[in-house]
Each structure stands twice: as structure tokens, then as C-alpha cells.
UniProtKB/TrEMBL annotation, chain A:
Residues 26-222 form the Spore germination protein N-terminal domain. It comes from Neobacillus niacini. Belongs to the GerABKC lipoprotein family. It is a lipid-anchor. The lineage of its organism: Bacteria, Bacillati, Bacillota, Bacilli, Bacillales. This is Ger(X)C family germination protein.
From TrEMBL, chain B:
Signal peptide: none annotated. It comes from the Bacteria. It comes from Neobacillus niacini. Residues 1-37, 510-555 are annotated as: Disordered. Belongs to the GerABKA family. InterPro entries: Spore_Ger, UPF0353/GerABKA_families. This is Spore germination protein KA.
TrEMBL record, chain C:
Belongs to the amino acid-polyamine-organocation (APC) superfamily. Spore germination protein (SGP) (TC 2.A.3.9) family. GO terms for cellular component: membrane. This is Spore germination protein. One of its GO terms (biological process) is spore germination. It is a multi-pass membrane protein. InterPro entries: Spore_GerAB (IPR004761). It is found in: Membrane. Keywords: Germination, Membrane, Transmembrane, Transmembrane helix, Transport.
Amino acid sequence: MWLNHRKLIIIMFSILIPLFLSGCWDSREIEKRANVLAIGVDIASEEDRKKEDEISHLSKEFPTPDEEMIKVTAQIAVPGEIPLGPQQPGGSAKPVLVVEVVGHSFQDAMLNLQQEVANELFLGHLRIIVFSEDIARSGTSRFNDFLRRNPEIRRTASLVVSKEPASKYMNITPELERIPSLYLAELVDNLTALGKFPPSFIGLFWTIYSSKGQDPYLPYLELKGKSAIQLNGLAYFHGDKMVGKTNPLEIGVFMSVRGIGRGGYGAFAEVPGKDESVLVRTVSRNTRTKVGIKNGKPHVSIKIQYESEIDEKESAAIQLSDSAILKKIEKATSKDAKRSIEKLIATTQKTKSDIFGFGEHFRAKLPQYWNRNVKTKEKWDGIYQNLTFDVKVDSHIHRVGMKSK
Amino acid sequence: MSFFRKKKRTVKKPQLLTPSKLVSQKENTPTSSSLTETEKQIKDILGNNEDLKIKHFKIFGQFSAACVYFSSLVDKDSLNKDILKSLMYEPDHLMGKEKPLTQLIDMILTETIYHSEAKVGDSIDQLIQLMLRGETVIFIDGIKEAIHIGTRKVEKRAIDQPQTEQVILGPREGFIESIATNIALLRYRLPTPDFQVKTMKIGRLTKSTVAICYLKGIANETVIKEVEKRLSEIDIDAILDVGYLEQFIEDNPFSPFPQTQSTERPDKTVANLIEGRVAILVDGSPFSLLVPVVFNQFYQTTEDYSSRFLMGSFVRLARILALVFSLIFPSLYVSLISFNPELLPTEFAVAVAGGRAGVPYPAVIEVLIIEVSMEILREATVRLPKQVGGALSIVGVLVIGQAAVEAGLSSPITVVVIALTTIGSFATPTYTAAFALRMLRFPIMILAGIFGLYGVMVGVIFIFNHMLSLKSFGVPYMAPVSPSDYEGMKDVVVRSPLWWMPKRPDFLHPSNQSRLSENENKMLEHSKLGNDQREGTTDGGSEGNNSTSSHNDLN
Amino acid sequence: MGDPKEITALQATTILISTIIGVGVLPLPLFAVRAGETSAPFVTLTGVFLAAIGLMILTYLGIRHPHKTIITYSQDIIGKWLGKIFSIVVIFFFLILSSLTAREFGAVVVTAVLRETPLEVTVIVMLLLAAISCRNNINVFAYIHNLYVPMILAPVLIVVAFSLKNANLLYLRPIFLGNDLWNMAGGMLTVSALFQGSFIITMIIPAMKTPKKAMKASLWGILISGGLYLLIVIATVAIFGPEEIKQIFWPTLELARTTAIPGNILQRLDIIFLAVWVLAVFTTLFSSYYFTIHSIKELFRLKDHKVLSYFILPFVFFLAMAPQNVLHMYEIIQLIGRAGLLITIIYPAFLLLIDFLRSWRRKKNVAKPS
């Protein structure tokens, strides 16, 4: 008993002492980390390029990546400037630090950034990454590799495309939140909850991007005024390159084809026989996608059921007092929806971007066909371009609110 | 490792002839029939003591005798009235009878003396031992034997509320220092012939009475034997408290976890006896020691059982949470702050970073500093006189905490964390178990400082493995969780209703398992159906054989 | 054996579950998807099935020799020397298995959480933990597994349950993709190699209260652990799709990273998941380590295994440090895993066959004279 324990203690100590001596390798206090909250990526302009310093490579001796140089703008929380507990008024100092760097690749830019910041960069709280439209159009896969390799990056961080240079988003000063990037992140996160946008986060973007039968999509933001941000559409991709954007209402159309149940968009529907219209808002949708081979060609049939609600009517001329008129409105909205769906699919077909994931349906439901004719993403793109489809929309208006007329 | 041991000294010191040695020399020496000689013998040994009294008197006015006692230990009232008076006056029924010297002792014991504990003894060492325990010895001239009478009376305090284990609902009695009273407290709750008390004397100097109490037919025989064996192997000069015994009989003395439970509460002791445990009492200690124990009983209180089961379960859950808190909360904090701040919500993380901005030390050091000062504060508060203690604890917590934050020594959140931890450790009802966890908090904190959450996990696994390897008198320490036991599990996290636990926990290997009789059980099932379904039956309720009248139990 | 035979069927089941669930949880979907794309769940199922057959054979053998471990009864069946040689191979295999478990664990920790801590340190801490715990007797061994099983199962189930919000059932179809049968068979072997820990049953049976119940225990053990593995594969495939999984080293970990608890109590589940996964790794390592030293003890008829537990520590450690990097490590793991199937399935099957033949012959011999 004695002997064993003494031995055990001696062994424990001989192992523990070196541990103490060498210390805590990964221990980095929270306030000693430079918490990067948001990152904006732009294409570096001519003058930005000059600022580049030789940090990860020496200009001539090492190969420089031949891709375009990027400008990364990072928003970093400054410890001590963000008060604990209820916010005290005043506090003139800015709670965040915005740093701009250029680099050949993402990691290169991050290394450059580290040179400029005293504390170690920490990406564990990176909530949002903004790509400017130019960057998105030139291809996003060059950034993905770094983001995926780094274990600190959250898979649930948001990824958005901006109309303006992304650096502008890092410098906005929203009035509702002290930390601008948190406001931005919350805004984007809430889009899904409000039914304004299908679920979209960086992990989902990667997942969609890597699967063969679909193309990714991202929210497309636009600045309105100094600090207001608007969701201005859906940026759709072909592979890793953005190829176009929809207008905001078409996001709703997209969601219904994609089969996202939660509705959030409303549209004016003309009341048949009158010149006036009512605002019909989608509450929920139910989508059925069937794929098949028609005349030897792949064919998709989509069947959508809308549950809607009348939110508002434009003028007193419309009498919403019997169910017959609701039926008519239903019909009108169905027709409108069908038209816009067909239009949206046709547009994406032109750019070969299957954001609806029809390819996945083919792969899953017709594996023989897929194995024989498709197999690769490139082939599917070609097929998608000439895909035939039919759309069937059925809308129901169940609620009209608290007003009886 | 023999080099650690010193060589035995062979030089012998000249032996001092102490009274105890004199007594042991006189082992089994019969008392002399001559009163003066006996008196001299006793005076040789105990003569120096002021409180040794020898009173000469004449029994029935004719036989000269002496009663010897320690005035500090005996009940003088009883000595005067019951013994001296009855011996000095020749009673009526003996008047005129012939009183030969040979029958005198018998006559005194059976016909004269008014005392229940009168016996005959004849060896001098034994009589001296008895005197030292407060008996009065009567030597009669011409007779070899002596009479010793139990006249012991020691001042004892009144039965009081147990200080360390207070309850809101439940009995208010606590053990006191006198073992006789303590056994009385147990017997009064267990009026059954199965309740057995075995006594032995341990301690060369103190000769403390140690009582092993158990319920025959419920407690496991091997456990009883094992307890007796371990106790009888103890050879020490003094046993001043059950704590001394605990250290000799526990299975793994190096473990931080207590392997016996000591309690001040008779009701708790009885409850444990009924579950099949063995209680050990020591004269002079207001605690009883319960074996075998399992870990989960350290966070249980008697209150859990006396209150309704929902309430009991809820309180118990809170207590378990507090237990976990007191063990790992600071280390979790350290690993979140220093290793994985990404786990915190962003807003909070940024705010915490702000709070810590002025603190010069890493979180581990900071937490360790505050923890250690908290321990000092706590220890100081225990030692302080009551009137000052309250003031100091408020000063300590409020002022020092506030000052530490303002001085930039710690961040406000650290103070919150440590405060929660400290309070959490008070929620564990058993002091010894709470202490073990308090102590183990430090190594885990250090591990957290080196490896973050991984370190915490390693520490916790290590502690769990250690606990799983412990045994208390053959019972695995973590039973009934692992090895799992269905009956026992009903009383671990939640306290199941009493009618749900018809069996005693199996892990104690009780000889008799059933707690509720089957008949009783059915009746309970029945009454649980609710009132509306009971209408048809007329015999509900009063069939139990618990008679409610006639016994005059209420005094 | 001085220890009382106290292990119950429930304890045996929990030992199997927690031994099987280990480091393999993290890369499992990757292995399965590499082999079968969308039919990864099917591959997993066949793998579990194969492992179950192996376990049944082992259990049956154990029940036929209820007082002996495979080290001792193999000597009865195929002769003393041959038995000893095979036993040494088995011991050596488990030595390697222990070291690879520790190494794989270290690799994950160093890559995902403690990026600057030396690999050696994380590995040695884990090995020490196992070595110290191995000093206990076999009943405590059972208690330890018994306690940890719910703690291992719960977080996995929680992560799976919360993650299903983002599931896309299309990724799971077609269930049977018959593209490359050879590849699928290979995947099946890789998956069933993850179940090699179930070999521990040979050590458990002699310590069981009623060895007859061992069959029930192993059935439940493989059912629960196999079910959990299947669930993980289904969840990861449904969320990431086969193509994405191919790009991730540890899809299960990534699953935890993608999952958020409603209410945002904790921003990321992956660290918590990893912390609990330490438990799973510990139990696995503990089992293989214990098996190794216990078998050495049996083979050389030693009295006590306690000293051995520190004695083999350096060997395990150096073996663990052998692979150069993560990629190299996984190549070795797959190789050793498949080779190990020879030891964990074919060898027992061979033993069982001979055992049958022998008892059949014995019966005939008994029948003849009468």
C-alpha cells in the first residue's frame, strides 16, 4: 500500500513538474486576443497594392500567387472599450478597430494583418464575412480553403455579398448596437427567422458548393444611406463564381421552389375585374419536386402550395366580404407566382446556376440516369441549361386579419 | 524503501514506575481481607489524588468497612441516600437475623442496598479501573471480595440541536458527548430486539467505550464482522473522537474522499441502521460513524425523506448541481477565458474581455489567488468568535471583492464565479465530502490552466476513476450508480416516493431486503387511484395493523 | 484470479459499448462515404453486421470456456506453443491499437483545440490516465465503463438531434449505390475494424457472474454502439452530403460545429463535443490497454498486472509517435485495422472450428467404447 502510493506520487510529480515548467501552450487570455468580429474582402485597387509589404514572401525570390490581390478589412473588438453590463452613455472612443490590409491570398492578408495588430488574431468570434460583388464574381473558392482549414472559424458564420466595396460595411456606424459587426451579423441571422431568406451560413455555402447537383446562393446586401443596410436580392453562383442577382421579391420565389416552408414575402395581387390590388403575404409553403425523364430528356415538375394571408387592401373599392372574391384573388396570385417562378428558373438556366438543387433530385431519385449521363458537375450544368420544367401553383388564402370587409 | 526508516534505538531508558504500571503489576491480585492493607494498596497507587475519598463506616453498626471513590466522578446524592444510608441503618427485615461474615456480601446485595448496579469484584486492578470510571467500591474488613456500585455521574450538556447538520423539517435532537445518552437516543427510536449494541474499549489511556450498533437481520453479517475486526486491531493511546477511529478503519487513507460518514443526528443514524449500515459510537464524541458508505449519501439529508418526494427531489437536484459547481466551475471559467472564448456568445465574450482588460495576471493565477484568499477567509470565519464572525464575512466578501476588482487584481466576473463556487460548496450537507471537492478543485484548476477543457476533462475522469475504485467495507463507493442497481437508483438523483422503494438498496447486501410489506404496498396502490374510483370499496384504508390506541407510548 | 466474479450482463454490455465507441466516431463518416458515397449508411450497416458476426464467434467461444480468456483457452485448443504464439500476436496487436488510439486522439486535439500544445504531451497525458486507471481490478474496470456510457451516448445523441434541423434527405438517396462494389467491401472492412475493441469480451466472460448471459450482452452492445454509429453516419450524410464529407477529416466534429443549441447558450458545440469525446477515447484506450496488460499477465502467468501498467507505457508511447503526420496516421490505421480483422474475426473463427472438431471427436471417442 505504502510503496505503491509513494511510487505513484513520485511518478505523478516527475510528470507534472515539467508540465508546469513548460507552461501553458495554448493559454491566451481573452483580452489578449484580437477578436476579429467581421471581415470584408475586396479586390485591391492600384493604390492599395502599393501598400503591400513583404511579409509572407519576398517579391522576386519566391513565387507569388498569380491571382488578383485582395484587400481585407477586419473589424476587431478593442478590449476595454466595450463596457460590461448596462451601457453607460458617452464613451467617445470607438469600440472597434478597423484595419485594412492587402495580400495575395486570404492567409497572406491575415499574416499582414497580424503584423499590424499587437495581439494574436482570434477568429473564433468571426460572425460575418462580406465579399464585395467583384470578389464574388471573380470566384470565392480561393478563400474557402483557408476558412475551412482553420478550426477557429465557425461553420455557422454568415457569408454575404455586398454591392458596395466590403470595406464600407466595416465602417458603418449603426445606431442600435455599439458594435457595428454584431448589428450586421444579427441582421443577416434574422433574415432566416423572418422568412426573408433561406438558411444561409458559410457551412451551408460550402456544402452546396461541393455537391454536384446544385449551386450556392448568398444574400446580396446594399447600403442605404449612411448606416442602413438592405437585403437587396439573392446572389446566385455558378460554381464558386457569382453570376447574377435577383431582385428582393424573387427571393420569395426562390424559397418556394427550394421548398423552404417559412414564408415572409408579400406581393400585390390584382383583384380580377378591378384595377386595384391587395397585398397577399405568404405564411407558409409546401413544395413538391418531381423529376423524371420525358421524351428522353430530363424534366422537372414542381408543385407548390401557398398558404397566404391578406394583409392590406389598397382602396375601399375592393370588397373582401365573400369567399368568392378570395378564390379569385387566389387564382390571380397563383398565376403571378407561376409566372415569376418560370421566369426565375429561366434566368438561372441562362447562367447555368442550379441554385434550386434540381440536380440533387436527379442524383437521388434517378441514380441510373445520373450515373449514365451526368456524373460530373460540368455535365450537369450543361443539362440544367436545357432542362424542361413545369410549374403548378396552388394558393390558399385562409386569413384576412381582423377586418371583416 | 528501507532507507527511510531509522534504525531502532537499542538503548533503554530507565523505566519510570507510573501508577498505571503499578496497576498492571497487580493484575489479578486478589484484594486482601484486611481493610487496612487494602487501603494501603490503593493509597500507594492513587494516593496523590485530592479527589480520591475513603470513607470509613460500619455496616449495620457492626462490620467496619470503607467506601472508596473519586468525589469528582460519583453521584454523591445517590451515594449518601442509596448506599451509605441503607448500609448504616440495619433494615427492619434483617433485624435480629444472624449475619455471618460469609453471607454478608450476599445479604447486602440482595436485601440491603438500594442500587441496581451493585456487583462483586475481587481483584485490585479491576477495582481500581472501576473506581477510575466513577464507581464506588466498598471494602469490608474480613472479606476478600469488594462490592462495586455504579455511581458514575458526569456533567453533560443537554440534548441540543445538531450544529453542523441543521434541518428545516425534521427532528431537532443531536447526539451529545455521553455515549449512554446517545445509545438511549437510538434505542428510543428503535424499540426492537434486533437493535444490537456491542461495546469494546479502545485506547490504552482513554479506554474509551466504543459501541457498534446495528440491526441484526438487516445489516450484513460480514460487514459487522469486518467492523469488529478492524476496530479490534486498533492499538492507540487515545481515542478522543470518532474521527480517530475513522482514520484507522477506512479503506483508503490517501483518498480525499471520506469513506465513512459521521453524523450528529440520531434520526439519520437510525435511518442508516435501517438501511443496513453499522453505526459506531464513541464515548466523548457527539458523532456517530456510519459504514459502509456510498458517495451519493453525502449529498442526501434526512430532510429529503421527511418532506414530500417532489420537494425532496428538487432540493436534491439543486444540491447535486451545487456539488458539480463547487468542483469544476472555476476551472470551466479558466478554460473558457484562456482557451476557448469562442464558446461564449460574442457579445458576452467582448464584454468579458473588457472586464478583464486591466487585470495583469492570466485567468488561472487570478482565480487561484481569489480562491486561496477565499479559503483563508472561510477558515478565519470558522475560528472567529460568533459576534465578530458575521461582521467579518460581510466585510470579507463585499469589501475585499469590490476592492480587488477596483484595484485591477481581478475581473468582476471572476469574483462572481468564485462567489458561486464557494456558496455551492456550502450546499453539500456533509462537511467532509464538501471538503474533498473543495480540495480537488485546485488540481483541476491547474489542469485547466494548462490544457483548457481537455485538462478539466482529464481531471474529472481521474477523480471519477478514483472514486470508482474506492470501496467502503466491500461496498463500491459509487454504487448504486456504477455498479448500477435498480432499487438503489431510485434514490440517487431524485428521491423517489417512499412507496416506490419497497426494497432496501441492494448494494449494501442487506440480509433482509423488504422495506414495505407486500400487503401494505397493494393498499397504497389502491389509494393512489384517486377518490372517485374508491367509492365502491368499503375497506379502504383501515386494515393496517398499526394500532393507534391503548399503548402509553407518549411519555 | 483473486477478484470475485461480479460483472453482470449490464456491465458487460456497457463495457462493450464504451470500448467500441471511441476515436473512430470522428472519421467514421469519411471512411463510409469514401467507400459508398450516398450508400454510406448501408456500408456502415454491413460493417456493423460483420463486426457482430465476429463478436458472436468470440462470445460463443468464451461461453464454451467460461473460466478462461482467449489467451488461456487458445492454448487448450490449438496446443500450448501455437496458442502462445498467436496470443503474442494478439497482445502485440492490441498494443499497437492502444498506441494508435492515443495517437489519433492526440492528432485531433492538436489540430482542433490545443493547436500549440505539443502532440507528445496530449498523448502522454491520455496514456498516463489509462495506465493509472489500469491498476485497478477488473470489477473497477467494469464500474468505470458502466458510469461513462450514458455520458458518452448523451452528447452524441444531442448533437445528432439538434443537427437534424438542417438535414437534407436528398443526400441520403440512393440508399444503395452499386457503383464500386470492391470499394464498398473495403469500406465495410474499415468500418468493422472500428469495432475491434469488442475483443475485450474474451477478457470479460471469465469475470462474469453468469457467463451464459454474455451472448445477450454482446448482442445489445453491438446493437447500441452499431446503432449509434449508423445514426452518426446518417446524420452527417444528411447534413453535408457525400461530396462535402469527402473534404472533411472529421465529419462528426464538423457536425457538432454546424449545430447550434436553440437559445444560444453556447455558441459552439464542437468544443463541448470534443471534451466529452475525451471520455469516449479514454474508455477505448483504457480497454485496449487493460486487455494488453491483462493478457500479458495471463500469458506469463504473472500474479499482478499493476506493475505492468507502467512498464508498457513507454512502448505504447513510442509506437504512438511513429506515424509522421495525420495523413500517414490514417493510412496506418486503415491498414492495421483491416489486418486486425484477421486477428479479431478469422482467428477466433479458426479457434471455434477446431474446438468444434475436437469436441466432436471426443464425443465420438466417448461413444465408441460404450
